[in-house]
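ugh ok so i messed up the first submission bc i forgot one of the chains. this is the corrected input, ALL of the components this time, i swear. 287 residues overall. if the numbers dont match what u have on ur side tell me asap before i send this to the collaborators (the ones from the other lab, u know who)
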Amino acid sequence: MDILRTKDEIRAWRRGAQGRVALVPTMGYFHEGHIRLMRTARSLADSVVVSLFVNPIQFGPTEDLSRYPRDLENDAAKATALGVDALFVPSADEIYGQSHETYVYWPLLGALLCGRTRPDHFRGVGTVVLKLINLTTPHVVPFGRKDGQQVLLIDRMVKELDLDIEIVVCPTVREPDGLAMSSRNSYLNPADRVQALGIYAGLQAAKTLIEGGERRSAAIRNEMSQLMGKFPGLGVEYCDVVSRETLRPVDAVDHHAMVAVAGRVGTTRLIDNLWTIGTGGDIRVEL
Ligand code: PAF
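and heres the new structure output, hopefully the right one now
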């Protein structure tokens, strides 16, 4: 596997890449969720490039940029074992230079849900993802469903900026007890880890209700609040039933809804969601 650090190197790699190319954008510290993305990429393309870049402009001034977990050696070993062809590991200076001023952002959709407490987050994500797409010109880019708002906004960018690529949404990968895999789980001490399960408990309750025929958002949110209230160490930031098109609250779930939760346990911020899928009256839940 090639480890590439500059834009010139990644462009040269791309010129020599055979067939369909998949890009897996990551911030590293690989867990099973990333591995799922890399396996999906491998199954959909002839050449796979993984970017590993802790993107400074998607972190707020008081957020965890400086302590975000990093382990390049281990990540490179995992990517090699998965048959990744190239790992792109640029510096912030290589990506942005000294006077970067061009951004991609969603003034309305990027201000909802996570955007309420992370006002510049999606601008940072959109900008770096477009740059990575431009540098690697992939055919296909898999994203995890766990970062639901992120993948919906990227999908919108692809459509609205006429990018000729396919976005593939991969299922959330969970720990055996249900906690969604995230690099930030490494911040949780054992007591926090128990409290973090409140998010999954809430979402599971929502899934049971929806599968049992409940469609009213208020009833779903009430049940979730009650359950999450049993985890006193979990500070719920939001718990919303929204349309995946508008990201705005809906009165009733249909086959295109997202039940999205963000919460804090100690200093760790966690997110998770479920999606409703299906046609007509037949609604399935993907958690
Ligand atoms: O999901 C992530 O890890 C990041 O937001 C991404 C897409 C790699 C952009 O930095």
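quick check: The helical segments are 7-16, 32-44, 72-81, 92-96, 121-136, 148-160, 190-211, 217-228. that seems consistent at least. The domain at 2-170 is CATH 3.40.50.620 (Rossmann fold).
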